[in-house]
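For the sake of clarity, the format in which proteins appear in this thesis is described at this point. The fold follows as a row of integers, each naming the local backbone shape at the matching residue. One such record is shown here in full, so that the layout can be seen directly:
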Amino acid sequence: MSLTEIARFADLVEAQVAASRLRAEGVQVLVQNEHWGASDYLMTIAMGGFRLWTPDVDADEARRLIADLRGGETLAETPSSGRVTSTARAGAALALAATFGPTVALLLGGKGRGGWMRSVAVGVAGLCLAVGLAAWAAALFG
């Protein structure tokens, strides 16, 4: 029996609700990264969120149930809507943070006690903040 990915979620609770709905309809489902999300939020972002997997034979039915749960949105409607995907938004935010975060930190850090280490720390904190905001934006608008 092979498994097919049917959906991805940025929020653990949303993924668990969707999995519960599928199980209530008699569809076997696996929530990938469920334990990472419960213990380490940043690792969840790195792993790509929470993925729902079902057996191949149940994939179409599971996608239909997930679409109903999400308010009737189907996979065919998503690309034609013209909206930027949440993955593209998160990638753009990460690229901007990685490019400009350390530079701004070095410019604002200045000299003195702590020197370049303080600047690097501020840059890393800015990068983490940007990744968190990108994940939040993806969950809110994606």
